[in-house]
Amino acid sequence: MIAILAILHESWLSLRARGIFKITMGLNVLVIVLFMSVSFSDTGVNVFFGLGHIEHEYVNLHTPWARVVYLSIFTTFIVNLWLAWIAAGLALLSTSSIVPDFLSQGAVELTLSRPVSRTTIFLCKYAGGLLFVIVQVSVFSLGAFIAAGWRIGVWDPALFLAVPLVTLFYSYLFCVNVLAGVITRSTLTALIITLAFWFVIFAVRWSERIVTEVTFQEEVHIERLEKKIAGADENSPKIEDWTLRLEQSKEMRLTLQAWQGPLETARVFLPETAATVDLLKRAVDQSQPATIEDIMSGRLFETDEDERRPHEIAQERREERDRNISGWWIVLKSLIFEAVILSLAVWIFRRRDY
Amino acid sequence: MTAEPAILVQDVHKTFRGGVQALRGVSMRVDRGEIFGLLGPNGAGKSTLVRILMCVIRATKVQGHVLGNPVGHIPTLRRVGYLPEHHRFPPYLTANQLLHYFGGLEGMPRSQRRPRIAELLERTGMRAWATKKVGSFSKGMQQRVGLAQALLHDPDLLLLDEPTDGVDPVGRREIRQLLLQLRDEGRTILVNSHILAELEPLCTQVAILVKGTLAREGRMAELTAGNQQWTLTCSGLPPAWLEEIAGLKCHNHADGVELTMAGDAAETMQQVLDRVRSEGRTVTSLRQSGETLEDLFMRSLDESAHADAAVPGAVTGKRQA
């Protein structure tokens, strides 16, 4: 245990010594201050501590939507954009050198010649790399928690879920980074491989999302056409056109489903980066009357299903499908991926001569 | 010597990926309480052997023990201190933090580390630099901190790879004295160094590795004993009676001649001295000299080169280590 604490403490000192750690922390504080600068008045939203004002009929001090908007700024924009993209990218830049530096000649012997197993050393180094994200997101979540309490009176501890969720998300990428680092012993190569892997996850996720939404869109077309045909007069001149369009939509749906299968299979084997971070939204949104997507898409204020555009319904159905995927499944399958990659990295690390 | 040596390895082989044969059947014994010199030219396999003993690399084949446990036994490392060659300490740590880190890796609780670190920083002359970052240290200072980390957990056995590398003459002398003190405390020290003149007054045992094989191993006194020589310097021309004394050689010297006799030839040299004085020559010096470590080292290299020439293809593998 003393050895584990020693490695973690050294990792912390190593992170603290990196300029990028301080830069990221500074940017984090800036983002939180900007978040705190948003407040609500009787007539709308104040930004930059009242320097700017946006008048809004629905989002003001007297409506429940102010709460939804404020928390959604955190869960949707700050966490999803800032923490899960920009801060994660900076973290990768900073931590990609941990394993190659550790494995460099003259450094690795000093640690490997101690009475500690190589597996323990490697896993502690890995955990040490995750400290970057844990510390940054902890500070960030604390700031967000205070901001939400101060600005909208919501003291929601669910905001702290950002710490384990963003760390989990980052760990899926970092395990690939350390595997590449162990194999190549090059910071730059490890970084490029990780970014390429991140891009593959992103591409597969978005392709699957688009194909699914277009499939749902075709289903909406099919449902509407079937309804029209069923309700129309047999002799109506439009029936032929509707039947033709129905056949085309069904054909299209079949083609899309052929694409959907392989994409869904690919997703099963890849870690769920974005879905893991989205779990925070689920936890925070549960206590809210609506989500920011509801407000932004206007679906809150529309009741007639037939008047809504098919792509909006398709998006809603896809979101509904995503919400129905168990959080445990998302995390568990991603952790299995991480465990496999880490086991491979440990195996190589243990076998190699230094 | 004590029955159980500190290190006893037999038939150590190491072939790296690509077919590089770094060690080819090395056997070595290091007795307890000794300072053992591991010598050899670059690429001889010295550091590879030390790394195998420290579990940093795995031998292709090895039999033997370190402090009574098989080579590769990780818990034994708790009793071994190691200073690698060309070590690179994390530059962002202070000397204090660095020693706490390595002490932690050895499993030492903080309460035990604190006084020990203070003591070792004092002993290695680094107390004033305890709170300075290692990245700002000179090579010599890093070497001193390196020695401190090797001694931190009070090891029975020390493996030091070029311990005086980059250290100034004063520091080298201090390190030599420290090693002698450590030996007197009962520790076994294996020193791997190129600086033969430094090892000579320290080591009681040496091993010379050449091209991955053991060229020579034994006690210093025994290895150099067979190569003693008497030298008498006197005035005048080469003596006419030179050939009457078997083994006596004569070389011209600036102030006269130099008469040399190999081996333990004290009595014969008495006769030579008597004859020189009877001729009225002035004797300027008479001295007995043995083979130096450097002589021994060079002789081992020459013998190895001759052996290679005699046996074509003696060095196997794709490239020479």
Task: Based on the model shown, name its key terms.
A: 354 residues, mainly alpha, B: 321 residues, alpha/beta, Alpha-Beta Plaits, 2 domains, four-stranded antiparallel β-sheet, 9 helices, 14 strands, 26% strand, elongated, disordered C terminus
Tell me about this structure.
The complex is a heterodimer of chains A (354) and B (321). Chain A is an all-alpha fold. Chain A has one domain (2-351). Chain A is built from 13 helices and 3 strands, in the order ααβββααααααααααα. Chain A has helices at residues 2-17, 19-36, 65-95, 98-102, 108-112, 118-152, 162-184, 187-231, 238-269, 273-285, 292-297, 310-324, 327-351, and strands at 39-40, 44-47, 52-55. Chain A has a 3-stranded antiparallel β-sheet with strand order 1-2-3, with no helix packed on it. The longest helix of chain A is centred in the middle third of the chain and has 45 residues, at 187-231. Chain A is flat and about 90 Å long. The mean pLDDT of chain A is 89. In chain B, the strands form 3 sheets. Chain B has a 6-stranded mixed β-sheet with strand order 6-7-8-3-9-10, with helices on both faces. In chain B, strands 2-1-4-5 form a 4-stranded antiparallel β-sheet, with helices on one face. Chain B is an alpha/beta fold and 321 residues long. In chain B, helix 2 crosses helix 3 (110-123) and helix 3 crosses helix 4. Helix content of chain B is 32%, strand content 26%. The two termini of chain B are 34 Å apart. Chain B folds into 2 domains: 7-224, Rossmann fold; 228-289, Alpha-Beta Plaits (2-Layer Sandwich), CATH 3.30.70. Chain B contains 9 helices and 14 strands. The A-B interface holds A 2-3, 5-7, 9-10, 13-14, 16-17, 104-117, 353-354 and B 16, 51, 54-58, 74-78, 80, 82, 84, 86-90, 92-93, 97, 100-109, 149.
